[in-house]
Amino acid sequence: MSSYLPHIVALVAIFTFVSAQSTFPATPLASKTFAYPTGIPYKVDTDIGLVRGTQKGYNICNSTTESQHSLCQTSIFNTLDDFCLWAPAEPNSVVGNIEGEMVAWCTKPGHGTRLIPGGALTGLQYMRTPDYIQIVGFLDQTKVDIQVGDYGGEMDPHGADLRGNPMGGIVYSNAWTGSYLQVMEWHNFMGSDAFCFKACDSRGPNAARFCEHIFDRIGCAYNAPNNAKPDVFESCEGDNQDFPGIYTENGQVKTYMQPAESLGPISTTPYQPKVPASSNCKTFESSSIFAALATVSADPKANDGATGSSTTVTSSGLSSKDSTTPSATGSSAPAKTSSSHASTLAITGVPVLSLGVLFSALFLS
């Protein structure tokens, strides 16, 4: 018995430590507001002693943090050619394992982030509606450090512990007023070589409903209905979608609730999402709107099973240094221009509903 005593004492100490940790922050991430750019703190998530640990990156992002090793967690979403996606900081990552640690990858220099490598984006539809902006598209996810074949997951400012996924991740947009406003409600699904990102206008009364975060297992088709097509890059105006989970059957408005994960895979849903009407669609050549990405290359170790830090990847004019301590004096004003599963949930190793099926059902017109 005496030989087991040290182990028992250690286990009790660990249990006591974990039990003493809190789960929820004093203020939920979705309630934290910061004026852009001077009101943004170094780290948004400042609570200590919480179960998931500390925020991975930082939120003051400028020229001193801009590189392919940036840990910036302040995202920008403006237009078809100026947006950021949440993606891993390390090559060959599984989204479901690191949703809380995602960093911003953007399409334009000037945001203090990593840049999405040239050729990664293979089709986009940007939609501006009365209450939100939305971009849906196809990408080679290995070029943004997501493991090949990963079905992915959902990022949003809530999460089970209200710290957000990623923890401390904040979003800004100049789409509505020309000046940067903080986006309090948003969701971003990444996986299966596709993505959707919706940012809801915080000034509207239904931002939380259009950017719902409780349907993480049924992916983009149900959360961001669209007509995106491979190899097409277009910007459109459109009507609002139905609130996620709300549908009409035989003239009766009904509500769908995602079943608990403990009940097993989602094999069917009672409705097909309605794609909102769109108008004034304009198409563009990707080589033109993403010219700044042409010299940005994917990490060569992204899919060789490497688990350590990635090798240095640079783009024209960007530092190859891993910037982990941003300077508040760097240039931080971007240029103005015109839990969490996605759909096939390989997060726990159990497929639920193929994101590819959902996307193909949407894209076939």
TrEMBL record:
It comes from the Eukaryota. Keywords: Membrane, Signal, Transmembrane, Transmembrane helix. The chain crosses the membrane at residues 345-364. Residues 1-20 form the signal peptide. Residues 299-340 are annotated as: Disordered. Residues 307-340 have a biased composition (Low complexity). This is Macrofage activating glycoprotein.
